[in-house]
Design a protein that fits this description.
This protein is an alpha+beta fold and 196 residues long. It has 2 helices and 8 strands. Strand 7 and strand 8 form a beta hairpin. The longest helix has 43 residues. It is elongated. The N and C termini lie far apart (94 Å).
């Protein structure tokens, strides 16, 4: 009878108590080590260095170029000639803002890239911040929709004295059978900025 009583106490009290102590120890250990792990995860995130870009033609695919900063405080990272996550892409053959010519920055219509900037209109301003080169200010002079991918890319080949930047936001033309990708192109003229 005593052994049955002890087995009952062992099952009803001792084992749950031991399990509770083990669970509490695991929780305390997790709390103790969680901040260190969180710090490790944060350190693993991509951080872009502020670099001095000499020439766009010397950049490698995926290199960080700078960021676009809009009047409402929205900022978007710009990389060179390769889409990496939520960054915008500066196309090859783009001219530097401190030289004459045009540059093209392309992004998708999803909110992580240029989607939330659908409200941009003629007269709005933004800054293209290129690290140590400084921030170059632009004013939107025209907004055109229904531009093909080929035509959007061709803006980089434009010659001339004007320092122009073309923001190309893509969207799918659902009225076409193959849902062709088209672009809204925001044409912007440089109005100031930069460190030299």
């Amino acid at each position: 009878m005593k052994s049955m009583g002890f087995n009952f106490i062992k099952r009803a009290v001792i084992i749950p108590l031991v399990l509770a102590v083990i669970a509490a120890a695991l929780v305390l250990a997790a709390v103790k080590f969680a901040p260190e792990r969180l710090t490790e995860d944060q350190n693993e995130q991509t951080t872009y260095s502020v670099q001095e870009v000499q020439e766009f033609s010397k950049l490698q695919s995926g290199d960080y170029v700078g960021r676009l900063v809009f009047a409402d405080g929205t900022e978007r990272a710009v990389t060179f000639d390769e889409s990496t996550g939520n960054t915008l892409v500066l196309l090859q053959k783009s001219k530097e803002p401190w030289k004459n010519g045009s540059a093209v920055i392309r992004g998708t219509g999803v909110s992580a890239q240029l989607g939330e900037l659908r409200h941009l209109k003629q007269g709005d301003t933004f800054t293209f911040d290129i690290g140590k080169r400084g921030g170059f200010e632009y004013e939107i002079t025209d907004v055109a929709s229904g531009v093909s991918a080929k035509d959007a890319s061709a803006y980089t080949g434009q010659k001339g004295k004007a320092k122009m930047l073309y923001l190309c936001r893509s969207y799918n033309d659902f009225s076409s059978a193959d849902k062709t990708k088209l672009y809204v192109v925001y044409t912007a003229r440089q109005i100031g900025g930069g460190n030299g």
